[in-house]
Input
Amino acid sequence: MFIGREHELSSLNKCYTSDKFEFVVIYGRRRVGKTALINQFIDGKKAIYFMGVESNAKQNLENFSKNIMEFSAGIQAQTAFLSLQAALEYVFHLSEQERLILVIDEYPYVARASKSLASTLQLLIDKYKDHSKLMLILCGSSMSYMEDHVLAYKAPLYGRRTAQMKILPFDFADTCRYFKNFSAEDKALIYGIAGGTPQYLLQMDDRLSVADNIKNTFLNPASSLFEEPENLLKQEVREPALYNAVITAIATGASRMAEISTKVGEDTSVCASYLKNLLTLGLIRKETPYGEKASRKSIYSIDDNMFRFWYKFIPENNSIIARGAADLAYKRIEPYLSDYMGKVFEEICMQYLWNLLLKGQSPIEFRDLGRWWGTDPLTRSQTEIDIMGEQDKNTALFGECKWTNEKIDTGILETLLRRSQMFHYENTHLYLFAKCGFTKGCVDKAASINNVSLVTYRDIVESLFR
Output
């Protein structure tokens, strides 16, 4: 089942219909659905699809030759081209008279084995681009390799690409489209534990409860998700043990550089290097209080929901999970799920606000959204705001998100109102987001203030599918 990626498919089809040479770079983390997107795009079109393997140059050349022969002659030939340059030049010749797509998937595997490949492609592109109808797609899962050796200014292929796509995990709306049978609340929980990575979502079964899904995947030693984070790190980095320690430190409460360094037991200079690579992989994020570009207040958090769930709950329960005690492990996890979902709900609420803006329905045309934390000048205590977005120096929105089974009372609204006044904007709009609604007192108070929107989780879900 293929869902979502409408924008990416539209962009690829726009390139395809140009009927001139196109060079598209597609990259993104493993499991995020790059190959599925490409297969959906080339379906029904004349295309040569070649998947690179982590082997030597000879093996990749033989495989590439077979793919070309199968396309051009419809046979499985046993012979191979003498070189990658000869094979690629043959494909360029094929595309002189008709539109043809060439996909080199897992390009880093091929390029690492054949050091001259990038320069060869550069040579052939420059030679044939003006009279070629080839649509060349290079795809890779190694984020650092694609950025440093394909997209970077000093890379041989720099300036040749006509389009690039960084494929990201699905947002909450697309994740919901995977599941017809989950309740609205269960969809949020599944998004919270599996994130928006298609390969992880495929492991979830909407005919079962959320509890059973957790037991069948994260709490099952035979499941592919049980060791997925550690396995992915082994594929992406050279020293997975130290990366694992850094992510564990963040998952268990260390958010500032000094705290992470102390927990890991390494100098901050060492940790900074590992954090930079994890940022590139999209596994963690670095945040500063909204409106502050560089700050000592910067904190790190896990950006991928599946990784955040795994590192928060699995390692500490690993011993009993290994002994097949899934029910006992879940019993230990369940009391903390609601608190865990608080951060996930904030993310869902931000996506809702972006959706309103893009539809032209937002009362504040903000430029960005983020969290804010710092010192309240009145109470001289540390405080934070879940969501903040500025339109200009005079106008901003503020939001508070509560994932609890209780209705939100006036106290939460009054606190948000007071915090919004710390910034002295002339025009503000306040958003209160609640899992289960609001008390009558809160509704009346919001109506009297006149610049407040009360939004329930059900309102969010319904708005996504209007």
